Amino acid sequence: MHRISRRMVAVVVVVGALVAGGAAYTNTITDASAPANTAGYAAVTVNGATLNDAKYTFSGDGTTITAVTFTFVGDESLKELKFGFSGSDGTPGVAPTLNDCSDGTNSGGIIPSVDYDGTTTHTTTITCTLGTAETTVNAVTLGVLVANA
Known about the structure:
It is a single chain. With 149 residues, the protein is mainly β. It has one domain (40-148). Helix content is 13%, strand content 38%. It has one helix and eight strands; from the N terminus they run H-E-E-E-E-E-E-E-E. It has one helix at 6-24; strands at 43-47, 51-58, 64-73, 79-86, 99-100, 116-117, 123-135, 141-148. The longest helix has 19 residues, at 6-24. The model is unreliable at 4-38 (pLDDT under 50).
C-alpha cells in the first residue's frame, strides 16, 4: 500500500487551483462563428475595484471601438473612473494612457449614483464613450482605474 505524502497533496491542490483559475480568465476568442468585429484582449488591469465585465461597442464596420460598458461588483458610484487602451500605436506592452470616463451625463469621470443597482444585481454599470475611437486591431491592453473622488 502506497501512502500519498502531504507535500504531494499540496502540489495537486495548487496545480488544480491554477488550472481552474486559468480557465476562468481567458483572453482570446476561439469561436469560429465569432463575427469579424469581435475583440479579445491581451490583458485587463483594474486598480481600485472588482470588474465583472467590460463590453465593447464597435463602429458600424467593426474596425474601431467607440465605447466600453463596465460592470463592477458593488457600489462604485460617486468614484472617479479612468480607462484607456495601450497598443494603439502598434506597440503592445506599453502602459495605457488613462482618460476620464464620459457617458454624456457625468463630468470629471465621476460615476453617477444612478448607475448602481442596489436592489437586484448589486453592481455598478456605466458606458464610457471614447473621445477618439480605438482601432480594434491595436486595442491590446485595457487599463481601468477606480478611485475615491
